[in-house]
């Protein structure tokens, strides 16, 4: 049987409100997420012994294969699906690591989609969602990578949103920003709430309306992330200095930042300017959907 392949697109937090910290220590979030044309690729060789090989430009930064979320997702799938067919995974790692792009979560979700295909399970089989929840907070949203609003720890998802495709430039300055210290930087004790604007439940279908809605809701993790990695501010300033940039923001807990532009031509021009100024940075013009 030929190997199966799935894309693992980057998840972009266009907004990210931290509503507060729960009594169990986790944070309640609400975030508008969209998915980029950029991402990793995951292959599955059916029938081979379960394992994972890492390749690609950012494979070394991804750490040991044994700690990868792909294998954790496969183990969870095997535990819930009797006599599950498995195989050997090959992950082409293209996204920067610890970058606020949900790369590891996207890889795990791609593994679950591959295993569902191999075992003739429908995409909406509830066991897939159950495994995704157990593997990581962002994995449920990545199972069906379309724009939507996620709430709670990431397990409460809206229906997919019909929004106009958004042209953007993704920039990562190379600073690795672990998620836990960023959340600690909010300084919220259990039970505390964080003041901020209400998040809309839906979005207008047109690009201008989407842009206005995004402007009205910040990423609450930006201030603590900037204290950990000031280079995020440098990357934002470089993007904002381009005439093509309509909105510049950090994604997730950082350090990747993005600029929304009017169209893909403007995104390509802005990306060229940033790459010329900072050749060592990861810079990717793409579309969000």
From TrEMBL:
Q: Where is the GHMP kinase N-terminal domain?
A: 68-143
**Can you provide one Gene Ontology molecular function annotated for this UniProt record?**
4-(cytidine 5'-diphospho)-2-C-methyl-D-erythritol kinase activity
* Domain GHMP kinase C-terminal, residue spans: 221-277
Q: What Pfam family is a match for this entry?
A: GHMP_kinases_C
Q: Does the keyword Mitochondrion apply?
A: no
Residues annotated as the enzyme's active site? 11, 138
Protein name (database record): 4-diphosphocytidyl-2-C-methyl-D-erythritol kinase
Originating organism: Xanthobacter tagetidis
Query: Source taxonomy lineage?
Result: Bacteria, Pseudomonadati, Pseudomonadota, Alphaproteobacteria, Hyphomicrobiales
């Amino acid at each position: 049987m030929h190997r199966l392949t799935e894309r693992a697109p980057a998840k972009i937090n266009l907004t990210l409100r931290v509503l507060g910290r729960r009594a169990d220590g986790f944070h309640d979030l609400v975030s508008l997420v969209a998915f980029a044309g950029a991402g990793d690729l995951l292959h599955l060789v059916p029938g081979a012994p379960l394992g994972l090989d890492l390749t690609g430009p950012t494979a070394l930064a991804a750490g040991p294969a044994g700690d990868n979320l792909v294998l954790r997702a496969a183990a969870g799938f095997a535990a819930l699906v009797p006599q599950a067919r498995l195989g050997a995974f090959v992950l082409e790692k293209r996204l920067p690591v610890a970058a606020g792009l949900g790369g590891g979560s996207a890889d795990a979700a791609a593994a679950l989609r591959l295993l569902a295909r191999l075992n003739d399970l429908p995409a909406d089989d509830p066991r897939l969602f159950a495994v995704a929840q157990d593997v990581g907070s962002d994995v449920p949203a990545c199972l069906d990578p379309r724009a939507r609003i996620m709430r709670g720890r990431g397990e409460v998802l809206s229906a997919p949103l019909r929004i106009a495709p958004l042209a953007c430039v993704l920039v990562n300055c190379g600073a690795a920003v672990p998620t836990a210290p960023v959340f600690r930087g909010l300084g919220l004790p259990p039970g505390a709430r964080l003041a901020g604007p209400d998040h809309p439940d839906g979005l207008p279908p047109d690009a201008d309306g989407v842009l206005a809605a995004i402007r009205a809701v910040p990423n609450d993790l930006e201030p603590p992330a900037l204290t950990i990695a000031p280079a995020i501010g440098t990357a934002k300033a470089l993007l904002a200095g381009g005439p093509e940039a309509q909105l510049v923001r950090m994604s997730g807990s950082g350090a990747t930042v993005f600029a929304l532009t009017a169209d893909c031509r403007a995104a390509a021009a802005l990306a060229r300017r940033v790459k010329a100024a900072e050749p060592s940075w990861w810079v990717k013009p793409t579309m969000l959907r």
